[in-house]
Amino acid sequence: MRLHTLTIQAFGPFAGTETVDFDRLGDGGLFLIHGPTGSGKTSILDAVCFALYGQVPGAREAAKSPRSSHAPPGRRPEVSLEATIRGRRLHITRSPAWERPKKRGSGSTVEKASVRVTELVEGRWRGLTTRPDEAGQLIGDIVGFSREQFCQIVLLPQGDFARFLRATARERRDSLERIFNTGIFTRVEEWLAERARTLGRQATSAESAVTHVADLIAEVGRSPQPATDGAAGLDALVPWAAEVASVTAATACEAELVSAGLTAERDDARAALERARTLAERQQRHADTLRREAELSERADQRRALDTELAAADRAARVIPLLRAQEQQHSRLDKAEQDVAERLGLLGGILPGGGGSPPPGCARPNANGATRSPGWNTCAVTPNGGRNWSTPSRNSTPRWRPPAPSWKGCGHAPANSPGGAPNSPPSWSRPAREPGRARPPPRRWSSPG
Questions:
Q1: CA–CA dist 358, 354 (Å, integer)
Q2: Which terminal CB of the chain, N or C, has fewer other CB atoms within 10 Å?
Q3: How far is CA 259 from CA 246, 251, 270, in A?
Q4: What is the pLDDT of residue 395?
């Protein structure tokens, strides 16, 4: 670090503005600051420290403010330092907190501390910061010392040199490392120590791996492992491992020939096994086929019976529509006979002289003892002298014709004709049905009065 110019205003014992040109003093290479006590020799060094770090060294830091008590009330305390630090030319202007008179009215007010740091770049001053905390960090990084280290090593204010001599070894080491920038050597030393520890761990791991492999070689090669406790150490394993490797290689060649023969025998055995399995499978299928054939032969009669029943069912299926048609025709015929009976009953009720008995010779008894007239199925004589005439058969045509019934084939009139029995309404009944056929529900009709 090289100081160029220091300007002090209302700072310490200096009430006015004082400027120190260090460039002129430094031309001789060495200069001395001297004067009577109280002339401000220490204040110059305090101003340099205040410009860099914003604080004064020693016990004077405990003072309320470094502002000169001899300065007028309105004069601003300020320190400006222009210096070259590690090749960078900086201009630092600092002002401590101070109490000044109010611009309006009476009384005073406190003005806060301020700082302005600029750097000469290509012939022009460029601002770096105006914040006190940033300025202190920036100057500390550029100078390379904290305020305490700067006061102990560079500035050496009054009364602090003895404290540097009484500092501990750790404190002096930290200070000297920062002065001579020996931190890189410390980092190299730490890296070498860490590298040594890493290589030691790797060497230990490698020795363990070598020992493990040697144990495996001794077990497989059936050769005792040489001792590694002597001066040779693990180097004694090299010739032993080479010898075991040569013996193992020869054994491997012989084992390869034996293995080839055994492999061929194994392949032949597998082929024979596959052929045997195929033959066994075919024999099993043949046995299953024979058993199935025997079962089917035993069930041949049952199959023929089923075929016969199926053929009969097929033939019956062809007749079923005809039977259904015949049943429908019978149903229609029964309905027609019932309608005829009902109508004949109605006609018998409305015809005159519909009663009496047939004349003699016109009716003959049937198998049941009842009289039978020609052309009619039955003629049953009722107790009141009337007749119950049944419907004619399906193959005959009724000879009775309304409105004047007559008897055919005998030449006689009915008994209820003029001169005969009194008229009585005839009742008609259907002939007997065949067995097994259902009888329709009877319907009774009464002749009108």
A1: 11
A2: C
A3: 20, 12, 16
A4: 44
Q: In the β-sheet with 78-85, what is the strand arrangement from edge to edge?
A: 14-21, 2-11, 78-85, 88-95, 114-121, 124-129
pLDDT tens digit sequence for 424-437: 444 444 444 455 44
User: Which range, 232-246, 324-338, 366-380, has the best average confidence (pLDDT)?
Assistant: 324-338
Burial 272-287 (b: 16+ CB within 10 A, else e): eeeeeeeeeeeeeeee
- What residues pair up with 94 in beta bridges, in sequence order? 79, 115
Assigned token pair, 119: 């750097």
Nearest partner of 445 among 321, 326, 338, judged by Cα: 338
Q: Is 174 left (phi over 0), alpha (psi -120 to 50) or beta?
A: alpha
With 80 as the cut, is the pLDDT of residue 28 above it? no
pLDDT digits (tens, 9 = 90+) for 318-338: 888 888 899 999 999 999 999
- What are the two backbone dihedrals, phi and then psi, of residue 380, each rounded to the nearest 5 degrees? -100, 130
How many CA atoms lie less than 13 Å away from 371 in the CB half-sphere? 16
Quote the CA–CA distance of 68 and 448 in Å, as a whole number.
162
Count how many residues are written for the chain: 449
DSSP symbols for 194-250: HHHHHHHHHHHHHHHHHHHHHHHHHHHHT-PPPP-SSSSGGGGHHHHHHHHHHHHHH
**The dihedral of CA 327, 331, 332, 334: what is its sign?**
positive
**How far is 330 from 77, CA to CA, in rounded Å?**
146
Q: In 3D, which of 433, 429, 425 has the Cα closest to residue 376?
A: 429
